[in-house]
């Protein structure tokens, strides 16, 4: 079954804690993206990666980190430096010149 | 500077009627792509329709069509024969090349409510 899997669906973070959101794809797409969406708002780009072992900061990268060790995986870590992490996080993939495909998202909340 | 503008925060339409959702964009590139996505309350992003900057014909996909006016830099989404299930957020997005590859920029969205 081809697609993008984001896990977990819901995640809670304590103060001072780092948490990692998973994004796995079996579409064989080169590019992967992380977006943040606040209630009633559009998508803002956090990080993106066009190839393995390389990634670029988006518009709101502060307080977040990523890695791209495998083509299939692009995990996002929300660090304790991100003071307002409560949001809906979406992972997307694309092939050059094609639309993005999205995962079902992870909702992160503060405890 | 805002690259994608959607001036309608919310729209209402009667079931079975057509509705147009506005989108204007800003780019200096000659090669770019324009997309519309639907986001129901459950949160997933559903790709609806795509228009390439070099495509001369307006894109259509079932009940969705894209009214592309390149000189005006607008890419409005037209939904014909609205259904209750069309109630959702709709996002216009643009793909543009950059030094690293390609990037996607999203507008703020329009919330469409279909009335029975």
Topology:
The complex is a heterodimer of chains A (111) and B (116).
Chain A: E1 4-7, E2 10-13, E3 19-25, E4 31-37, E5 43-51, E6 54-57, E7 64-66, E8 76-78, E9 87-94, E10 101-102, E11 106-110
Parallel strand pairs in A: 2-11
Antiparallel strand pairs in A: 1-3, 3-8, 4-5, 4-9, 5-6, 7-8, 9-10, 9-11
Chain B: E1 4-5, E2 10-14, E3 19-21, E4 24-25, E5 33-39, E6 46-52, E7 60-61, E8 64-69, E9 74-79, E10 88-98, E11 101-106, E12 110-115
Task: Name the features.
heterodimer; A: 111 residues; mainly beta; 7-stranded mixed beta sheet; 4-stranded antiparallel beta sheet; globular; B: 116 residues; 6-stranded mixed beta sheet; 0% helix
Model description:
The complex is a heterodimer of chains A (111) and B (116). Chain A has no helices and 11 strands. Chain A has strands spanning 4-7, 10-13, 19-25, 31-37, 43-51, 54-57, 64-66, 76-78, 87-94, 101-102, 106-110. In chain A, the strands form 2 sheets. In chain A, strands 2, 4, 5, 6, 9, 10 and 11 form a 7-stranded mixed beta sheet that branches. A 4-stranded antiparallel beta sheet of chain A has the order 1-3-8-7, with no helix packed on it. Chain A starts with a strand and ends with a strand. The mean pLDDT of chain A is 93. Chain B is mainly β. Helix content of chain B is 0%, strand content 54%. In chain B, strands 2, 5, 6, 10, 11 and 12 form a 6-stranded mixed beta sheet that branches. In chain B, strand 8 (64-69) and strand 9 (74-79) form a beta hairpin. In chain B, 34% of the residues are buried. The model of chain B has no long low-confidence stretch (mean pLDDT 93). The chains are: A mainly beta (111), B mainly beta (116).
């Amino acid at each position: 079954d081809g697609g993008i899997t984001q896990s977990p669906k819901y995640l809670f973070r304590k103060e001072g804690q780092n948490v990692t959101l998973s994004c796995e794809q079996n579409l064989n797409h080169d590019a992967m993206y992380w977006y943040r969406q606040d209630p009633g708002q559009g998508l803002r780009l956090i990080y993106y990666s066009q190839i393995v072992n390389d990634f670029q900061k988006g518009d709101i990268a502060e307080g977040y980190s990523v890695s791209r060790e495998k083509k299939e995986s692009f995990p996002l870590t929300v660090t304790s430096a991100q003071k307002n992490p409560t949001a809906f996080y979406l992972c997307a993939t694309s092939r050059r010149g094609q639309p993005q495909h999205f995962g079902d998202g992870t909702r992160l909340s503060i405890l | 500077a805002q690259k994608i503008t959607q001036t309608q925060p919310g729209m209402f339409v009667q079931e079975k009627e057509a509705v147009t959702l506005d989108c204007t964009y800003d780019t200096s590139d000659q090669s770019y792509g324009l997309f519309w996505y639907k986001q129901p309350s459950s949160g997933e992003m559903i790709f609806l329709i795509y228009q390439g900057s070099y495509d001369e014909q307006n894109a259509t996909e079932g009940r969705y069509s894209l009214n592309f006016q390149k000189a005006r830099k607008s890419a409005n989404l037209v939904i014909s024969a609205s259904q209750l299930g069309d109630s959702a957020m709709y996002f216009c997005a643009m793909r543009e090349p950059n030094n690293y590859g390609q990037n996607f920029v999203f507008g703020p969205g329009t919330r469409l409510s279909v009335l029975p």
